[in-house]
Recover the amino acids of this structure.
């Protein structure tokens, strides 16, 4: 069973204007009351979030992965 605490949309996709509100609304609608958690029932604003690194998330992740492989 998987129960993520947060869904993070990274890279440039997370910055697309209007995308996150659509994803949040679709999530709430698809769950249709099945999950009775405030983070979801309140509109999922704190559940589906953009990556803190914004458009740099992918590049930063690649650099960290490369560093861990070569270390």
């Amino acid at each position: 069973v998987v129960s993520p605490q947060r869904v993070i949309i990274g890279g440039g996709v997370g910055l697309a204007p209007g995308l996150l509100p659509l994803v949040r609304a679709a999530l709430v609608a698809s769950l249709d009351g099945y999950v009775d958690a405030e983070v979801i029932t309140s509109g999922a604003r704190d559940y589906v979030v953009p990556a803190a690194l914004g458009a740099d998330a992918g590049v930063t992740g690649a650099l960290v992965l490369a560093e861990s492989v070569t270390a």
